[in-house]
Amino acid sequence: MAKEKTHINLVFIGHVDHGKSTSVGRLLFDSGNIDEQQLRKLKEKASELGKSGFEFAFIMDNLKEERERGVTIDLAHKKFETDKYYFTIIDAPGHKDFIKNMITGASQADAGVLVVAANDGIMAQTKEHVFLARTLGVSQLIVAINKMDMKNYDQKVFDKIKADMTALLKSVGYKPEDVPFIPIAALPGDNIFKKSDKLSWFSGGTLLETIDGLKEPEKPTNLPLRMPIQDVYNITGIGVVPVGRIETGVMKVGQKVVAVPGREGKGVPGEVKSIEMHHEQMKTAEPGDNVGINVRGFGKKDIARGDVIGPADNVPTVASEFTAQIVILNHPSVVTAGYTPVFHIHTAQVACQITAIEKKLNPATGAVLQENPDFVKNGDAAIVKIKPVQPLVIEKQKDIPQLSRFAVRDSGATVAAGMCIDLVKKT
Predict the structure, then answer these.
(1) What span, in angstroms and rounded, lies between the C-alpha atoms of 229 and 169?
(2) Among 94, 136, 139, which Cα is nearest to 112's?
(3) How far apart are CA 224 and CA 250, in angstroms?
(4) Nearest-CA neighbor of 115 among 4, 195, 31, 13?
(5) What residues contact 418, with CB distance under 8 A and at least 6 apart?
(6) How far is residue 11's CA from residue 125's CA, in Å, rounded to a whole number?
(7) What are the DSSP E strand ranges found in 149-279?
(8) How far apart are CA 71 and CA 63, in angstroms?
(9) Is 280 exposed, middle or buried (0-12, 13-18, 19+ CB in 10 A)?
(10) C-alpha to C-alpha distances, 128 to 5, 98, 108, 146, 380, nearest whole angstrom
(11) Cβ contact 419:397 at 8 Å
(12) What pLDDT score does 340 carry?
């Protein structure tokens, strides 16, 4: 069996109409992941709808409503391979109403491509997306300066946007020296898949080469074992089989583990008897592995989705309250103390009350704007105190970032997203 290529979730972000979908479509087409015939159909469809030049975007925007409006509404997922990696490309909407979907995208991404149009430069949402990407843990970023054709491929335009972006990246905590900047023109296809003589002044790689140059996401094997439970099966002849994805650490057969909070909220001890992945028995499992395990000591009623399995000597943290940095994305009015929406954290969904709003932050820089504000609204970032209505496993961002991030949902919409920065352990 050939070694599987490393998998990377790549999210395309940036302001509306800056060319995210077209960049992705062009990349997929030029690299042979989409054929002429599919593209010809999309071209015809585009001109029928009076949207000529949108054919590449249509590769990603496959919902009827999106084609008619010319905007990306939902998250599109596409698979894509390079010599080195196997990518899932997430094309995240830049459109204001659709920012809630962008969260779902960014919170599962290992790396991001921020698309900035040369003719517009940095816009409000460019800033917001950069801060969100940072808050949600997208550690590697590439900045693609698109629509260079609309600026006659002028190096000065590229340099100016690069300088402005460098300051913005610094302000939210990215190291600009680690962020590659590349000029592209997605519609004509310059510097996406192949080099272009129109950009002869640029010595760096194409978008494809730059993506292929991303660092392999580090497997957090050095952190303590954390496996959130997705489902619990009862299999005849085997017993109780929790299924889930290892987020951090390493699980071994014979290891003593604890599932928390567990039914009584006291934690359920056990010992790993077997680990299975894709119907194969394994001795160990690592971050990213989706496994089913059989644990001696776990009964059917002891554990449920949302519980987290960890080592007996480093039990996952159950918090009675926690402090978080959040961004309000899509709330119909204002968020005040007392608000109790549902928090989605790893596989758990728990109602939590915001008990205090401690600080309002500038969403583009994280600087404190106001202490103890009465409320926060869309576009605001804040530091808040939160009390779960039932025991919840969450970890601090600085200890185990993978278990610190969450989305906040209310009546079918993502209202906010954030990360836990401090907590009070349940006693």
Answers:
(1) 36
(2) 139
(3) 8
(4) 13
(5) 135, 324, 325, 326, 327, 405, 406, 408
(6) 15
(7) 181-183, 227-235, 239-245, 251-252, 256-260, 268-277
(8) 10
(9) exposed
(10) 33, 13, 18, 18, 10
(11) yes
(12) 96
The CA distance from 228 to 241, in Å, is: 13
Task: Tell me the CB-side half-sphere exposure of residue 365, using CA atoms within 13 A.
Answer: 8
- State how far the alpha carbon of 145 is from the alpha carbons of 141, 162, 291, in Å: 13, 8, 41
234 phi and psi angles, rounded to 5 deg: -115, 105
The Cα 198–Cα 152 span in angstroms is 9
Give all domains of the chain, ordered by start, each with its CATH number. Answer: 6-212 (3.40.50.300), 227-311 (2.40.30.10), 318-425 (2.40.30.10)
Q: What is the predicted pLDDT for the residue at 75? A: 39
pTM, entire model: 0.66
* DSSP letters spanning 196-217: -GGGTT--S--HHHHHHTSPPP
User: Residue 361 in contact with residue 380, Cβ under 8 Å?
Assistant: yes
DSSP per-residue codes, 26-90: HHHHHTTSS-HHHHHHHHHHHHHTT-TT-HHHHHH--SHHHHHHTS--S-EEEEEE-SSEEEEEE
Instruction: Enter the DSSP assignment of 399.
Output: T
pLDDT digit string (tens) for 260-304? Answer: 999 877 899 999 999 998 788 999 999 878 889 999 999 989 999
Stronger pLDDT, 13 or 158, i.e. the higher one: 158
Dig out the tokens for 30 from the structure: 């030029």
State the DSSP code for 225.
P
Q: Are strands 348-361 and 111-117 parallel, antiparallel or unpaired?
A: unpaired
